[in-house]
Write a structure and sequence with these properties.
single chain, about 25% strand
Length: about 250
Amino acid sequence: LVANPKSTKLIAARTGTIDLQLPEKVRQQSQSPSLLNRADLYASFGLWSWVEVLAARNSNERERIPALLAARAHWMCDNNTAARQSFDLAVARQEIPKWYAELCLAADPSTDPIAQSPPEARPADPDQPRTPDTLPVGVTSVTEFDKLKAEIGQEVVVEGNVHTCMWSNSGNVMTILFEGKTPRSPAIMAIVYKDFRPKFDAAFNGDVAATLAGTRLRIKGKIFRYGGQNPRYAGWPQLILEDPAQVTIVP
């Protein structure tokens, strides 16, 4: 693939050359002296390494490249140190709230397969129902973090309200995060590895992540100690789900 401001050429063995003319608006934007215009164009095509180069060259305060755009470019290029600095700058400039920056950094695909929001960064949701004080005998609230942490290695049944449910950027793992006793307090987590995704998708309307998000769940299984590389979650209890029968949506 060879690209220039006027056209893009696809060159393949034994097939010759095919010219694809760029739309006039795109061509003009690619020739724009504005770094911001060009950065937006490159980002729209997923050319994050080009955006990263422009962000490094950015020196005009009147049309500075948003820190969030620079952060996304660094993050997509696995430049995690620069990404964190840019996210911090985006927060300082009030481009994004702090919890959003922490959510993105917690989903670092190069070091931690679990995409999740750290507990202190979870935004409050006044409409989200809290775990009731009374649960059936044998069922533990997901908010009993210390109790569940002490029961690592044991079989349990837990129940609680789902805060987020999403697959990692790599698609290797889906993480279920539950609401704690307060929006900033921790709760046990649950994960599903990609090998079991077909079974879970089939059991939950073709899209397990979308179906479980925002619901109240009762989950049974053995508690494991968090085994990822993010030191923020060292020692946390988590359930590893391999069978949809382990999960029940509570009305």
